[in-house]
Structures are given as C-alpha cells and as structure tokens.
Amino acid sequence: MEEKRAVRISKFLSLVLRHDPGAVGIVLDDAGWVGVDDLMAACAAKGRRFSRAELEHVVATNNKKRFAFCEDGTRIRASQGHSVEVDLGLERAVPPDVLFHGTGARTVPVIMREGLRPMSRQDVHLSADVRTALRVGARHGRPVVLAVDAAALGREGHAFRVSANGVWLTDHVPPERLRLHHEDGARG
C-alpha cells in the first residue's frame, strides 16, 4: 500500500473513531468499538473507500498504534485520544516515577501556571520516554518536554491508566508536579 494512502486513511480513521463518528453516520458503543463492516460501509457511502486489507495494514503499521481490532477482528476502535465520551475499560496502573509531556514552547507559560488539562480530549496524554514526547511536542512548534512527577501524583491519589499503545492517561497534572526536562538531567 502506498504510504500516502495509508496516512490519509489513518487520519480519516482518527477523525471518525476518536472525534466525530457522526461524520460518516456511525455510532460507537460505550467502549468506543464499531463493527468493521459497518465502518467500511459508512466510509464508502461518504466516498472514503478502503479495503479490509488496507484497513488491516493501517492498524498493523501505524507507528503510534492508534487503532486496535477486537480479539475476533470484527470490531475496531481508537486506542485513546477520544474527544467523544467512551470508556476504554483501562484498569488503573502504577506509572513509572517520571512521565513526560511534549508540547510547543508557546504553551509552556500557561501549562506551568495552570498544569496539564485534557483540553478537548478525555485525558491528559503522557509518554514513558523523552523521544516520544519530543515527537509530540514538535507537532505544536518548537518542542519542549515537561517531566511529570508521576510518583508523587500516585501517592496523592491520582489515577493513571495505560492504553494499548503505551500512552499514559490521567485526568490532569497540577503545575507543582511539572518541571522542564533537560537532556543533561539539569532541573528546570
């Protein structure tokens, strides 16, 4: 499959499965699942045709593992990042002591004053590694990585969950649990 086509399908699936299922006239169940056949038919009806093989390729090769099939392959959902209400059924998990959040430099002053909030999504997204956070931050301009004191948040009762693709989720991070991350280990 041509890479450009895979990217177009992936972006369209992100829109439909994370933010606007009504764009193609489907309804997600409470856990975010929709039948593969229903999804493909609805997309085709809106002029967005793709084959089952193409869909499987997008799910299997997406470097962020944004989508997942159910065990028998009859349903699909986004792994996280929803702005529509879904319950992914993720159990609470104990995070590593430090997690990371990538953002653009222009948003740092507000974040350091107000903390991390989910904004249009259901959860704040955190990474277990700096490299992933840098990639995320680069989507928003000059990237800045913030270190999150997840150990302290856990002790304070904040709930963490980890999605199927390794993204750590929590409801918010107060500013006192954030610091600028520097590659040399210096504290910011």
TrEMBL record:
GO biological process assignments: tRNA splicing, via endonucleolytic cleavage and ligation
E.C. number(s) listed in UniProt: 2.7.1.-
UniProt entry tagged with the keyword Transferase: yes
Alphabetically ordered keywords of this record: NAD, Transferase
One Pfam family hit: PTS_2-RNA
InterPro entries: Ptrans_KptA/Tpt1 (IPR002745), RNA_2'-PTrans_C (IPR042081), RNA_2'-PTrans_KptA (IPR022928), RNA_2'-PTrans_N (IPR042080)
Gene Ontology terms, MF aspect: NAD+ poly-ADP-ribosyltransferase activity; tRNA 2'-phosphotransferase activity
Family: Belongs to the KptA/TPT1 family.
Function according to Swiss-Prot or TrEMBL: Removes the 2'-phosphate from RNA via an intermediate in which the phosphate is ADP-ribosylated by NAD followed by a presumed transesterification to release the RNA and generate ADP-ribose 1''-2''-cyclic phosphate (APPR>P). May function as an ADP-ribosylase.
Name of the protein described by the UniProt record: Probable RNA 2'-phosphotransferase
Species the sequence originates in: Wenjunlia tyrosinilytica
Top-level taxonomy: Bacteria, Bacillati, Actinomycetota, Actinomycetes, Kitasatosporales
